[in-house]
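input
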Amino acid sequence: MRGEHLVALRRTAARRPYRAGDLCRESICPIAEQQAGAADGVAWWDYHCIALDQERRIWDLDTKLPQPVAARIWVAHSFPRAAAWPAPLRPLFRLVPSADYLRDFSSDRRHMRDADGDWLQPPPSWPCIGVGDSPGAEAGTKTDTQGNLRYYRDLSMSDGPGIVVDLEAFLAIYCADEGAVHGPRIT
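output
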């Protein structure tokens, strides 16, 4: 659902060059400072979508941090002591250019239902994104009637959308020249 919220946000804010999905090798990732988190603020996401704008600020619609927030501050608060975590829990990011994401992403919301087909949470009020846009839909395309979220979530796909980077690469790309951060340190 967060991916759909970001599509709505992105349609009204053209200055978001990247969409990133947080994932882990184990397909579940702890992220701190989350509104959906437990009492300690940590949520264990199977995937989580954020947007990164040209000023290197993160738009995370579930964070307790202000919107937007500098990428380095978001990382420091969202993944405190991540370097000490076991490798399977360290975050990975699928970075997809915003224009590609808006053009190609589709979801039929099946990931929001339980085994019996009941909603896990109430769905958004707007229609599904990009599903079944044209007849003769091809698997894995925006017109795939089942959606293509699985291609965004599967980090083993080298030919999936965008590129996959680890936390260190994300920091090197987006936070290298931001200077000191006030708040938790990444160790």
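quick obs: Residues 4-15, 132-144, 179-187 have pLDDT under 50 and may be disordered.
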